[in-house]
Amino acid sequence: MPKPGSKHVAPSTASVMRTGRNRLAAAVVLHEGRVLLVRRSYRERFLPGVWGVPSGKLEPGELPEDAVLRELKEETGLSGEIIGTGGERTFISQWNGVTVENRQRNFLIRPLSLAVALPEPDQEYRWVPVEELDGFGLDDHNLGTIRQSLPHRTAGPRA
């Protein structure tokens, strides 16, 4: 029972609609002890200019293994081979007043080519040595994704 002077408010349809869930897949691309990082376009509405690993939402009915290779191709032009899994990360994000629960599967990828082709002209990419990742200025989420995906959670094999 509510305290005197307080109001009990039932959840509204609007509040239910203001939450969501995403299934994501992330590619930690490793080549000769270096990890591929991509800076998002400054024109992106969500996280503009942020450095991270290629990742994105699964399409309806899509398997995470298929999604990670599709996202890698869409975001970098690269084809790759899954050589390991980095487990799953769950995190909450908020954007435009919507709270979203995200479940992200992480994969360790060996690139089948090295000719990166970014979709936006203001994007950048870098192959960063594993031992330099801590000083690169990545956010905790991307750094955690990489650490979780690398063998032994330290410097990985020269894929």
Automatic annotation (TrEMBL):
<dbReference type="InterPro" id="IPR020084">
    <property type="entry name" value="NUDIX_hydrolase_CS"/>
</dbReference>
<dbReference type="Pfam" id="PF00293">
    <property type="entry name" value="NUDIX"/>
</dbReference>
<dbReference type="InterPro" id="IPR020476">
    <property type="entry name" value="Nudix_hydrolase"/>
</dbReference>
<feature type="domain" description="Nudix hydrolase">
    <location>
        <begin position="20"/>
        <end position="151"/>
    </location>
</feature>
<dbReference type="InterPro" id="IPR000086">
    <property type="entry name" value="NUDIX_hydrolase_dom"/>
</dbReference>
<dbReference type="GO" id="GO:0016787">
    <property type="term" value="F:hydrolase activity"/>
</dbReference>
<keyword id="KW-0378">Hydrolase</keyword>
<dbReference type="InterPro" id="IPR015797">
    <property type="entry name" value="NUDIX_hydrolase-like_dom_sf"/>
</dbReference>
<comment type="similarity">
    <text>Belongs to the Nudix hydrolase family.</text>
</comment>
<protein>
    <submittedName>
        <fullName>8-oxo-dGTP diphosphatase</fullName>
    </submittedName>
</protein>
